[in-house]
């Protein structure tokens, strides 16, 4: 009986160690975009259309559902190379847009 308790405790400890290692690896990657979910299906077409109308053209280079600032985010690269993040609500209404600060610092 004592041996089975030890085996169960060892198994539980192994599960905790493996789970902790996985969390450490995920956290150590430093990639904030690791959990980003791209917009898909009919919503993608509507989001792209709304974003391109807001920016006056360009190319959609990235999309995200559940962005921290809005329901949808669409990144548009303009013809001059500038990038603009367009924030949309669930109804594909523009609720904000801003030039991507990362694009500003890349040389």
Describe it for me?
It is built from three helices and four strands, in the order ααββββα. Strands 1-2-3-4 form a four-stranded antiparallel β-sheet. It is 43% helix and 23% strand. Residues 16-31 have low confidence and may be disordered. The chain folds into two domains: 2-33; 36-105, SHC Adaptor Protein (2-Layer Sandwich). The N and C termini lie far apart (67 Å). It is elongated, with a radius of gyration of 22 Å. It is α+β, with helices and mostly antiparallel strands.
Low-pLDDT segments: 16-31
Q: State the CATH architecture of the largest domain.
A: 2-Layer Sandwich
Percent helix among the residues? 40-55%
What is the strand content? 15-25%
CATH class of the largest domain: Alpha Beta
From the spread of the alpha carbons, the general shape counts as elongated
Which secondary structure elements does this structure contain, and how are they paired or packed?
Layout (H helix, E strand, L loop, with lengths): L1 H27 L13 H14 L3 E7 L6 E6 L5 E6 L5 E6 L1 H5 L2
